[in-house]
Amino acid sequence: MTDRPMYQPPYTITPAIVNLVARISEAVGRLTAFTETAKTLRLRRINRVRTIRGSLAIEGNTLSEEQITAILEGKRVIAPPREIQEVRNAIAAYDRFEKWRPDSKTDLQEAHRILMAGLIDGAGTYRRGGVGVMEGTQVIHVAPPADRIPALMDNLFRWLAVSEEQSLITSSVFHYEFEFIHPFADGNGRMGRLWQTLILSIWNPLFADIPVESLIHEHQQEYYAAINRSTEEADSSVFVEFMLKMIVDAVSSSVSTDQACDQVTDQVTVLIEAMGWSERGRADLMRVLVLSHRPTFRENYINPALDGGWIERTQPESPRSPTQRYRLTEKGRRWLQQRKEE
What we know:
Blueprint: H1 15-34, H2 41-58, H3 65-72, H4 81-95, H5 105-115, E1 132-135, E2 138-142, H6 149-162, H7 167-181, H8 188-203, H9 212-218, H10 220-233, H11 237-252, H12 266-275, E3 280-281, H13 282-288, H14 294-307, E4 311-313, E5 325-328, H15 330-341
Antiparallel strand pairs: 1-2, 3-5, 4-5
């Protein structure tokens, strides 16, 4: 008897995907080099809250980051009980995060059981009935029949275990395939995002603390549109490209620091290093920093650097000028020189 041929998810490695993988790998290297504080308990908690907030908000949860932080600290929060339960479940799931293997069906089902405990019947078990994905009153995807789920998921896990693709690609393909199969009665979206993060964290532990979900929430309609287009084209490349774009921005804006202390933030550190002794324009800096999201660049990099007196505009009287450039202040130059000497 011959073995069944290995299942191969349909996707194409496009030039855009290759470029995005390279940009992310470069950004991860830069982030690793400049963010020694990224593993501190405080920063991990901040990013964990952002992750939970983003993933649950996509599913309609209205709790704020402040409320989620309060729940994490065991404080009483006045909010719909179901939304509080969703947050508690997500906190419990991420507490178990590092103990799961991406290619383990048992671990995936345990994760779903924890994530959906008290929210649906049969949490942790594959669905037994049909299910469709709705957009308003329109059915946009009819998932495969329930009796095919065990075989489809086994095939997907086998492929994941032997895939030789870069993890950024593999995790995105798995995410799409998981959403297409829709193996559970509910909670498939948050599970797909959780499992992609798990796959990425095996490649680089830094991803356990990068809140990709918060970026997906900001681009929620594009997220669903990418899934739908991939389904229509029977090729998940559109979705893979979308996820890689989200990861680029999430990696580039992931590290937060204590704004109360009189030290250079991690984002400003990266910005000063990128500027060196030259004057640079916005587009040039975003290219060097591997950023494509202007609000992220403005709020996390330029504004804190200006407010802290580390950089200055070459045309301070015309802050929105298209020819505006930035340079280090004397304070910034002293800091950079000391950094290089160290």
